[in-house]
Design brief:
The protein is mainly α. It is built from nine helices and two strands; from the N terminus they run αααααααββαα. It has a two-stranded antiparallel ribbon. A hairpin with a 2-residue loop joins strand 1 and strand 2 (142-143). The longest helix is centred in the last third of the chain and has 19 residues, at 163-181.
């Protein structure tokens, strides 16, 4: 079950009142990117939009790193929004491994074990991949190429042994949706200038 767009936007606004920050605008831009790409790929654009709006809803509980994904998961499960809960948890993991995450693990051992088991037993679907991708295509100001977002997050969180692998998985997700859309998905996002690399 999914909330309506109106319900999702209302929850996002409530969450922003609880913990104001640029994450609200980021979420709106992720939702817009997800909707545009879903439409071009003949996926459910409304579902993609709602998932994008609420992927970071766990930030409602305050400033957090890994904890925001489990807080979002728990909140959405309590609402009966299982598909949203799933994306709250998967969106931070281009590599389906809790140890391949750039954030501080500000969670309990029980939460760690739950996330690890959840990821280990899950196969990503198109919506998991789409929200992971769109999370890297949008910041609080609008849309951006993947390289810009990667530099931004790397400057904030640092470099890890799995950093390049995370980037490569995200590029693979872009390639997947490029093929589905029969074009570069950058063409669907206003304001993006695609860089060409030889």
């Amino acid at each position: 079950m999914l909330p309506t767009r109106e319900e999702a936007l209302n929850e996002l606004n409530i969450a922003n009142e609880m913990n104001p920050g640029p994450w609200r605008e980021h979420s709106l831009n992720v939702a817009d990117a997800a909707k545009r790409i879903a439409e071009a790929c003949h996926l459910d654009a409304n579902k993609a939009y709602v998932l994008g709006l609420l992927h970071d809803i766990g930030r409602r509980t305050g400033i957090a790193q890994v904890r925001h994904i489990i807080d979002g998961y728990d909140f959405c499960i309590s609402k009966g929004w299982d598909e949203v809960a799933r994306c709250c948890l998967t969106h931070s993991f281009p590599i389906k491994d809790i140890e391949a995450d750039i954030s501080k693990k500000d969670i309990t051992k029980e939460q760690y074990d739950f996330i690890k088991k959840y990821l280990d037993e899950l196969e990503y679907d198109e919506y998991d991949k789409l929200i992971i991708l769109c999370d890297s295509l949008a910041d609080a100001k609008g849309f951006c190429i993947l390289e810009k977002r990667f530099v931004d997050t790397t400057r904030r969180y640092g470099v890890f042994s799995f950093t390049i692998d995370r980037w490569n998985y995200t590029f693979e997700y872009k390639k997947y949706f490029d093929i589905l859309a029969n074009m570069s998905i950058y063409n669907l996002l206003p304001g993006i200038e695609e860089c060409i690399f030889d």
